[in-house]
Amino acid sequence: MKTSRWWQQCSVISFLLAVWLPAWIMAQTTPPTQGTTSPKPQNDRLQFRLVGYPRKHNEGRIEVFYKGEWGTICDDDFSLSNANVLCRQLGFVSATGWTHSAKYGKGLGKIWLDNVQCNGGEKSIELCKSRGWGNSDCTHDEDAGVVCKDERLPGFVDSNIIDVRYQLYCHVEKVRLRPVVPTKKMPITEGVVEIKYRNGWVQICDVGWTSKNTRVICGMLGFPDEKKVNKNFYKLNIERQKNQYHLHSVACVGTEVHLAACPLEFNKGNATGSCKGGMPVVVSCVPGPQYVHNNGLKKKLKTTSMVRLKGGAKLGEGRVEVLRNNEWGTVCDDRWTLLSASVVCRELGFGSAKEALTGARMGQGMGPIHMNEVLCLGTEKSMWNCGFKNITSEDCQHVEDAAVRCNTPYMALENSETWYWDSSNVTEMVMSGVKCTGNEMSLSHCQHHRTVSCQKTAAKFSAGVICSETASDLVLNAPLVQQSVYIEDRPLHMLYCAAEENCLSKSAASANWPYGHRRLLRFSSQIHNIGRADFRPKAGRHSWVWHACHGHYHSMDIFTHYDLLSSNGTKVAEGHKASFCLEDTECHEGISKRYECANFGEQGITVGCWDLYRHDIDCQWIDITDIKPGNYILQIVINPNFEVAESDFTNNAMKCNCKYDGHRIWLHNCHMGDAFSEEAERRFEKYPGQFNNQIS
Length: 696
What we know:
Blueprint: H1 5-29, E1 47-51, E2 59-66, E3 69-73, H2 80-89, E4 95-99, E5 110-113, E6 145-148, E7 175-178, E8 190-197, E9 200-204, H3 211-220, E10 225-227, H4 231-239, E11 245-248, E12 265-266, E13 282-286, H5 295-304, E14 307-310, E15 317-324, E16 327-331, H6 338-347, E17 353-357, E18 369-375, E19 387-389, E20 403-406, E21 474-476, H7 478-484, E22 486-491, H8 496-500, E23 517-522, E24 525-529, E25 545-547, E26 552-554, E27 556-565, E28 571-579, E29 586-587, E30 609-613, E31 621-623, E32 630-638, E33 653-660, E34 665-672, H9 678-686
Parallel strand pairs: 3-5, 9-11, 16-18
Antiparallel strand pairs: 1-2, 2-3, 2-6, 4-6, 7-8, 8-9, 8-13, 10-13, 11-12, 14-15, 15-16, 15-20, 17-20, 18-19, 21-24, 22-23, 23-31, 24-30, 25-26, 27-28, 27-32, 29-30, 32-33, 33-34
């Protein structure tokens, strides 16, 4: 079958992309080559990225991929017009500024452009005036950077995902599996592969079809693996149907994240081709444990995986974290690619990666950074089988944490699943007693009453939700708690306000006021918002409660719980903290404070900022007057009643080993609740006492 000129070009483009992707990976790890000749710019597809440190995802040193090599742009004659052109090519609507003198660090290799002069309306930087490709008298001390407005162009894929744009080529955008036998069971894992074409769906001829092609299809559809299919079962059914073959000669290598990246051929024009000696492609995919109704498999994945995703709003997306030496840590985004991201996604039971996100797009982690410059081929079973560099404190910071968005199976859960509407017309309740862990894919998977307990109740009791793509994520600075802890014997005459706010143990009520004292375990709390939205109190200022004794408003009655636990988990002493002042005490570089309590100001914690409750303020303690010497666990829980939405509640608790000898106190192994492996956490719970500094 002959192909039209356009489809021939499409096939060539797909082939070049399949070849270019591995070449691009190699270009990331090999020294620059010298002395090669340059094709004309308009025949070479340019790619762009933002890199350097410190920076956010929408700013950085601008680098251009040209002639198989990454290079920089000199800041001579650079202007905001230049930055506008470059930001649009990166997928942002415009630029808000530009930088000179290698503000984001010096690049390596070529300086591709110098004396660039744009008027601002050009579609590409190659259309602007310059000295020509590779012609420069600059050094990397003059590397230019751009600051883009953090607003995406409609339909543009994420910035720095330079090897995903081939999805726009060849009109292979939607792919589905059509089961021969209709089923309501989700997800659909086996069936005829069909491609959306115009207003209908067409098939692929299976002549020459390989398991590598199947792997790419399954990855696109959200499945980590593939398996052999019984074609004889399908032949009889398929022969009775009218098939439209529009695609053939697919030749994937198996690591592509999209069918459009594979060499392939389309039939000429609108013609329906034949499939001599073949039939429509049928594939069978293996779903990940999350999509199998088998709790044993789900538990196995949770306990054995050394990779996890944190901070994402949806299943299959989040900041990449890896387990090393029994402690979870993040991955630096240097040279972070779709191939590496796909290995992570498949390892976790999803399909290939849709996006490999850089610049802490899923929030900044806390604790160690375990990996840098991860280099996967795409065939590895685990990220730990890929090449990578060990991290040093100079290499990366958490503003460079890598993240992923994975392809996930279609579950048909979007139709009439949950509604939020005026409840005045509610006539019937269909569920009650709903209790979810947060990981379920449907409300029907959560615990709930077998019989609805409020079937005829008033409409005001109907539940509603407001959904958001982003949320805050609060974590406690565990090392600061460990460093700041001490004991104070505080006179009762200084504790009247604290007693009024129930910050003392029950035995304080029978004390001989104002004589005597209470023994207080004091420490500082530094609470970071590492999420993707500001943390705001649930209640507005109009409903805050004034406390005259301390002279301040409470925006949340219970913001933090402080507990001292025995070795068997029994609570032996407790404290709590109301949020009398949620504000931005300090922020990371480049982030402005938004919230300040003075003059009845707005309260909250901005993304990238933290609030500090110092050890010397009232109620920042646990009353341990009645506690005997021994080994304990100190536990601090932020937002304990889940009053404010967060993307992750598993990191809201912090625990420490605690040793009290009746006069002094020591904390050891302070960590967030999700920072250790399950094995390390079990050891922690088994022996809560002091490991070093043995005290008799």
